[in-house]
Design goal:
With 454 residues, this protein is an all-alpha fold. It has a single domain, classed as Orthogonal Bundle (Hydantoin permease). Helix content is 74%, strand content 1%. It is built from 17 helices and two strands. Strands 1-2 form a two-stranded antiparallel ribbon. Helix 2 runs antiparallel to helix 10, helix 5 packs antiparallel against helix 14 and helix 6 runs parallel beside helix 10. The longest helix has 35 residues. InterPro entries: Na/ntran_symport (IPR000175), SNS_sf (IPR037272), YocR/YhdH-like (IPR047218). It is found in: Membrane.
C-alpha cells in the first residue's frame, strides 16, 4: 500500500470546497443540466433536481469524503488497509480500479467537448461564426456540421490545446497547480455566470422563460422522471468518478466533513440553477424551442446571441464560461488517474501526467473525434464511440462504483465511518446518515442503474 507521510493538505476549507465545486460544475451544470431541463418539463425537473440533491447527492458526497480521508491515499488504495484491526479483503481495490476506468472513459469524450467550445470561441473572435446579424437554425446547424462534425483535424487541434492547458496546470501539483488555479478560475466563472444571468433576465419577454424554468408542472413529475433526475445528480456531482475520494484524501483530519458535504451540494445546485437562468429567459424572448436536446448550447444559443444587443460579446463570455467550467472539472478527473499511477508505480509526477494525458488523447479523444467522421460506422452498444464512452462511464461504471462505495461504508467500514465524521459520540446525525447509506442508498442506486440500462 502507498505511503502517505508527505501528503499535502488543502490550505483551507474554502479552497477545498471551491476545488470540489469546480470538479462538479463542468459541463454537467452548464451544458447537460439546461438541456435536460428543457426536455423534461422545465420547473418540474428543477424541483426534482433540488430534492434529489438532498436525498442522494449530499449523503453520497459524505460517503466519498469518508472513504477518501480515512487513510489519505489514491482512489485504489483507499479501499485497502485495516478496519478494527482486520485487513480489508484485497478485492475491494477493484472499486478503485472501476473509478479509474470510468474516469478514463469520461475524459475520452469530455476533452473533445472542450475542443468544440474552443472552436466556437475562436470562430466568434475570427468572424467565421458571424452573429452580428440574426441567423437561422439552418445556419447554426451547418456551422456545427462543417466545423465540428466534418473537421476532425481542426477539433483534434483544439482538443490538444485544451489538453495542453490541463498539462501546464497539473504538472505544478495538486496544491500549487489545481488549488491555485481554482482560486482564480472559480471566481471568474461566477462573475461570467452572474453577467450572463443579469443580461438574460433583463431581456424583454424574459419572464415567460423564468416561469417555464421555475414553476413546476406537477403533472409532469413521474417516478421515471425522478429516477432519471437522481442519475443526473450522480453526473452533476462527479459521484463514482473517484474525484471526491481523491480530493478528500488531501483533507485535514480535523475538517468537518458534514459541513463540507452540505456546502458542496449547495454550491453545485446554485450553479446548476443559475446556468438555467442564463439560458431559458433568452430562449423564450427570441422564440427558440427549449427542448433542443444536447445541441441546445451549440446550435440554439448562437441564434439567441445573434438577436441580442452586444450578442458577440455575450456569446464569447458564455463559451468562455463553459470552457472554465470544463477546465475545473477536467483537472480533477485527470488527477484521479494521475495520483493513482504516481503512487502505485512511484514514477515522477511529470511522467505520470504525460502517460495519462497522452494515453487518453490517443486512445480516447482521437477515436471520439473520428466517430463523427471516418469512424462513424464503428458501433459499441449500438452507439458511436463518443456516445459509447458517455454511456459506459455514466450509466455503468460510475453507478457500480457509487454502489460499491455505499456498501463499503455501510458493511465494511461500519462504525469507523461514523467516527471519521468527527461528530460527538452517539450523534443522531451520524447514525441517521450511516443507516440511510447502508440500507436506502444502495437500493436507490440499483434502481437508477437498472433504469439506465432499460
Amino acid at each position: 500500500m502507498t505511503t502517505k507521510t508527505e501528503r499535502q493538505t488543502w490550505s483551507s476549507r474554502l479552497t477545498y470546497v471551491l476545488t470540489v465545486a469546480g470538479a462538479t460544475v463542468g459541463f454537467g451544470a452548464t451544458w447537460r443540466f439546461p438541456y435536460l431541463v428543457g426536455e423534461n418539463g422545465g420547473g418540474a425537473y428543477v424541483f426534482l433536481f433540488c430534492v434529489a440533491m438532498l436525498l442522494i447527492g449530499i449523503p453520497m458526497i459524505l460517503v466519498e469524503n469518508v472513504i477518501g480521508r480515512r487513510i489519505r491515499v489514491n482512489a485504489i488504495d483507499s479501499f485497502t488497509g485495516k478496519i478494527n484491526g482486520k485487513p480489508i479483503p484485497s478485492f475491494w481495490k477493484l472499486v478503485g480500479y472501476l473509478s479509474i476506468l470510468g474516469s478514463f472513459c469520461i475524459m475520452a469524450y469530455y476533452m473533445v467537448l472542450g475542443g468544440w467550445v474552443i472552436n466556437y470561441i475562436v470562430s466568434l473572435f475570427g468572424g467565421s461564426l458571424d452573429i452580428s446579424q440574426p441567423i437561422t437554425a439552418e445556419m447554426t446547424k451547418n456551422f456545427f456540421q462543417t466545423t465540428v462534425m466534418d473537421n476532425p483535424a481542426l477539433i483534434s487541434l483544439y482538443t490538444f490545446i485544451f489538453v495542453l492547458v490541463n498539462y501546464i496546470i497539473l504538472v505544478k501539483g495538486v496544491i500549487d497547480g489545481i488549488e491555485k488555479s481554482v482560486k482564480y478560475l472559480m471566481p471568474l466563472l461566477f462573475i461570467f455566470l452572474i453577467c450572463m444571468v443579469i443580461r438574460n433576465i433583463t431581456l424583454p419577454g424574459a419572464w415567460e422563460g423564468i416561469v417555464f424554468y421555475l414553476k413546476p408542472d406537477f403533472s409532469k413529475i413521474t417516478p421515471q422522471l425522478f429516477v432519471f433526475v437522481l442519475g443526473q445528480v450522480f453526473f452533476a456531482l462527479s459521484l463514482g468518478f473517484g474525484v471526491i475520494v481523491t480530493l478528500s484524501s488531501y483533507l485535514k483530519k480535523g475538517e468537518n466533513l458534514v459541513q463540507t458535504a452540505v456546502i458542496t451540494g449547495f454550491v453545485n445546485t446554485i450553479i446548476a440553477v443559475l446556468a438555467g437562468f442564463m439560458i431559458f429567459p433568452s430562449l423564450f424572448t427570441f422564440g427558440i424551442a427549449p427542448n433542443s436536446g444536447p445541441t441546445l448550447v451549440f446550435q440554439s444559443l448562437p441564434i439567441v446571441f445573434s438577436h441580442m444587443w452586444a450578442g458577440k460579446f455575450f456569446a464569447i463570455i458564455f463559451f468562455s464560461l463553459l470552457l472554465i467550467a470544463a477546465l475545473t472539472t477536467s483537472l480533477t478527473i485527470y488527477e484521479v488517474i494521475i495520483t493513482a499511477i504516481q503512487e502505485k508505480t512511484k514514477i515522477n509526477r511529470r511522467l505520470a501526467i504525460l502517460i495519462v494525458l497522452g494515453a487518453i488523447f490517443i486512445l480516447g479523444n482521437v477515436p471520439s473525434i473520428l466517430s463523427y467522421g471516418p469512424w462513424h460506422d464503428i458501433r459499441l452498444f449500438g452507439k458511436n464511440i463518443f456516445d459509447a464512452f458517455d454511456f459506459i462511464s455514466g450509466n455503468i461504471l460510475f453507478m457500480l462504483t457509487a454502489l460499491c462505495c455505499a456498501i463499503f461504508v455501510g458493511y465494511v467500514m461500519k462504525e469507523e465511518a461514523k467516527r471519521e465524521l468527527r461528530l460527538a459520540e452517539n450523534s443522531k446525525l451520524a447514525s441517521w446518515w450511516f443507516n440511510y447509506v447502508k440500507y436506502v442508498v444502495p437500493l436507490v442506486i440499483i434502481v437508477i442503474f437498472i433504469s439506465n440500462l432499460l
